[in-house]
Write a structure and sequence with these properties.
Length: 359
C-alpha cells in the first residue's frame, strides 16, 4: 500500500510528541465547556477572556521542557498574542507542536442504552487541509463509550463497531492531509463497577479500534492513542489504587496495542491533578513490556489549579503560570517513572470528575 506523501513527516511528528519526559496540554475545550470553567472563577465567557487565558498557558516560560504538543479548539488556532503573533507561531517557536480538535461532539445511537457515536465526518478532509495550512500538525477525535452494567452488555457491540469505524476513517483522512491522528476511544468510568469490569470493556474497545485501523490501512507509526486509564467506576467502593490502575491499564495495552504506535497519551478522566500524576507514574513503573511512551494528554488535570490561581486577573498571570509549570513538571517526571508526589499541595487533590463529561 502507498504510505502517502506525508508518511515521513507523520512519523516524525508522532515521535516528537511522544518524546521522553513530555506530553500534551489539552486546551481544546469548546466555548461552552470553557464557559463552565470560567463561571467557577467568576470570569465572563467572552472571546477576549478565552484568548487571554490561552495566552497565559502558551506564554508560560519553560513549558516546552515538559509539553511537546498542545491541542487547540478551532477558535484558538486562529487567535493571536497581545503583540500580534499567532498562537501557532508562538508554540512552534517554543518547539511545541500545535494540534486541533476536529470532532463535532456525540449524537445518540438509537435503540441503545444511551450510547453515542461521534459526529464530524462531513468535510473533514477540507477542514484537515485548512488546519494543516494554518500550522496544525496533529488532530484529535473523541469517541465516548459507556459501561452501564457488570455483565458485559455495555458498551454494546454496535456502539463499539460504530465508534471504531469512525475513529479509523477519521485517522485515515487526517493522515491523507498531513495530520497525525490522536485516536481517543474513551470508556467513561461513570458508575458502580469494579476495575475488572472496566478492564474487560476497555480491552474489547481497543481490540476493535486497532482492527478497524488496520482495515482502513492507517499507518500506525504516524498515530497516537489517547485512552482512559483502567479504573474502578466512579461510584464503586473500594476504589482501585494507583498500582492496581497501572497493572490493569498496562495489561490491557499489552493485549491490544501494536508496538508500532509510538505513544499512549492518557486522558485524566476527571481524576484530581495529583491522582492523575501518581497513576501515570505507577503505569511507568509497572512490570512487563512497555514498548510505547506512556504519557499524558491532560486538560483538567493540568489546568484546574492554574485557573483558580488566575481568577481572570492580569496581576495573577505569573502565579498561574508557575502553578501550570509545576504540574507539567510533575507529569513529565511521571512519564519517566520518577514522580514522588506532592506537587501543588492540597489544591492538587481536588477532584475534577464530571459524570457523562463532554467538551
Amino acid at each position: 500500500m502507498s504510505l502517502g506523501p506525508y508518511a515521513a513527516e507523520l512519523i516524525e511528528t508522532a515521535r516528537a510528541i511522544a518524546a521522553p519526559g513530555k506530553g500534551i496540554l489539552a486546551a481544546d475545550e469548546s466555548t461552552g465547556t470553557i464557559g463552565s470553567r470560567f463561571k467557577a472563577i467568576n470570569v465572563e465567557n467572552i472571546e477576549e477572556n478565552r484568548r487571554k487565558y490561552r495566552q497565559l498557558l502558551f506564554k508560560t516560560e519553560g513549558l516546552e521542557q515538559y509539553i511537546s504538543g498542545v491541542i487547540l479548539f478551532e477558535e484558538t488556532l486562529y487567535q493571536k498574542t497581545d503583540e500580534g503573533a499567532e498562537f501557532v507561531a508562538l508554540l512552534k517557536e517554543k518547539g511545541i507542536i500545535p494540534g486541533i480538535k476536529v470532532d463535532k461532539g456525540v449524537k445518540p445511537l438509537a435503540g441503545t442504552n444511551g450510547e453515542t457515536v461521534t459526529q464530524g465526518m462531513d468535510d473533514l478532509d477540507v477542514r484537515c487541509a485548512k488546519y494543516y495550512a494554518q500550522g496544525a500538525r496533529f488532530a484529535k477525535w473523541r469517541a465516548v463509550l459507556n459501561i452501564k452494567d457488570s455483565i458485559g452488555a455495555t458498551p454494546s457491540q454496535v456502539a463499539i463497531d460504530e465508534n471504531a469505524q469512525t475513529l479509523a476513517r477519521y485517522a485515515s483522512i487526517c493522515q491523507q492531509n498531513g495530520l497525525v491522528p490522536i485516536v481517543e476511544p474513551e470508556v467513561l468510568m461513570d458508575g458502580d463497577f469494579t476495575i475488572e469490569v472496566a478492564a474487560a470493556a476497555t480491552e474489547r474497545v481497543l481490540a476493535a479500534v486497532y482492527k478497524a485501523l488496520s482495515d482502513h490501512h492507517v499507518m500506525l507509526e504516524g498515530t497516537l492513542l489517547k485512552p482512559n486509564m483502567v479504573r474502578s467506576g466512579s461510584d464503586a467502593k473500594p476504589q482501585a489504587d494507583a498500582n492496581q490502575i497501572a497493572l490493569a491499564t498496562v495489561r490491557v495495552l499489552q493485549h491490544t496495542m501494536p508496538c508500532a504506535v509510538p505513544g499512549v497519551t492518557f486522558l485524566s478522566g476527571g481524576m484530581s491533578e495529583e491522582e492523575a500524576s501518581l497513576a501515570l507514574n505507577a503505569i511507568n513503573q509497572a512490570p512487563g513490556p512497555r514498548p510505547w511512551s506512556l504519557t499524558f494528554s491532560y486538560g483538567r488535570a493540568l489546568q484546574q489549579s492554574c485557573l483558580k490561581a488566575w481568577m481572570g486577573q492580569d496581576a495573577n498571570v505569573p502565579a498561574a503560570q508557575a502553578v501550570l509549570l509545576g504540574r507539567a513538571q510533575a507529569n513529565s517526571l511521571a512519564n519517566l517513572g520518577k514522580y514522588a508526589g506532592g506537587a501543588g499541595g492540597e489544591a492538587a487533590n481536588t477532584s475534577s470528575f464530571v459524570k457523562g463529561y463532554v467538551y
